[in-house]
Structures are given as C-alpha cells and as structure tokens.
Amino acid sequence: xxxxxxxPRRLIGACGVxxxxxxAVLGATAxxxxxAQGTTSQAALTCQGQGVDxxxxxxxxxxxxxxxxxxxxWNLQTDVEDWPSWQKPAAPMTIKRLDPGPLRKxxxxxxxxxxxxxxxxxxxxxxxxxxxxxxxxxxxxxxxxPADGPGYHIDGVHVWNFVKVPGGVLVRTEESHSGEQADPxxxxxxxxxxxxxxxxxxxxxxx
Length: 207
Prior knowledge:
Blueprint: H1 8-15, H2 21-26, E1 46-47, E2 50-51, E3 58-66, H3 70-78, H4 83-86, E4 93-97, E5 108-115, E6 124-136, E7 140-149, E8 152-165, E9 168-178, H5 190-202
Antiparallel strand pairs: 1-2, 3-9, 4-5, 5-6, 6-7, 7-8, 8-9
Helix pairs in contact: 3-5
C-alpha cells in the first residue's frame, strides 16, 4: 500500500509510464468500477487459445486500465493467498494454495467463503476449488473449478488478459458459470475485483 503521506496520484507520477464468485454466491452485484465496461457480447477472451465456456448459462466480461507497472499487477493477481488483504469480499473468505511455488499451469487453490443468512439461501460454507489450466507469464491466466455449498453448485471458468498500454496496463477478464444456480444477470464480482486490483496496484510503492 502507499507509504504515509503519499497519494495514489503522487505514486503514479513517481513511477512514470510504467475474487468475484463470492458476490455471485451472495446474490449481490457490485457497483461498476470506474472505467470498467461489462459486456457479454464481445468475442471471448483466451489464454493460449482457451477461453470461457461459450455455452454457459452465465457469462460476464469487463476491463479496466490500471496505472501501475505490469509486474506489480501480475504479482498481486498471482499471489492468490494474499487476495483477501486487498480485496473487499462480501463475506469472510480464506484462500489456500494446494501446491508450492509460483502460480503456474496445474497450480491449485481453494477459496472458502462463510455465507451469512441470506434468505432463501441458508447460511453455510461455499468452497471454490480452482485449477490453473493455462498461464503465460505477464500475459494471461485461465483457471477452472467448481463452487459448492448448501444447495449450490456452479462450474466456473475464469480468464485474465494483461496488455501494456501507454501509462499502464489494460486488464481484461471474463468468467462463465454453468449450473442451475448460475445467474446470467450477475457481474460475478468482476467489477469489484477490477476496482480493488486497480486500487491496490496504483497505491503500491514502485520497485
């Protein structure tokens, strides 16, 4: 985060040109992040040729420009166990890597979310078990996995693209949900995720 007395704007100037499902589970939709545009009509994002499930009941895509170095954004996004330190989940959440080393193809991680009472849905625990299927360092990530809870099952596919642009990085993301509980009207928490990633990256001291 930013050092004492340093605003995000000052940190950006000093550098020069340089998790989502919980909200869907709760049935909440985050307020759109500034400069992010949600859509389901564009061509699917891909990582090494693989994208979301185009036949899924629910799909959502969004993007945002982040004024921070690519390595800062990449490190935040791939340090999955640290996500709760900069994201603002709608319910208590913990994330655990299931293998050592940097995030890579075949890496696995598990998110555990404690749901409060939200009638008609009962309170309980939702577990999201994800496996990285494709990863190209500094460019893209794609993971898949189910979310399971009381009376709840969704199969998800999530793709991230990172593209350097003047002044920062264009971050694009797309997610698909399959299953009876998939909500085609939900943003799947992606707007909040992008907003939190932008805030975290732009307030990190440059290294």
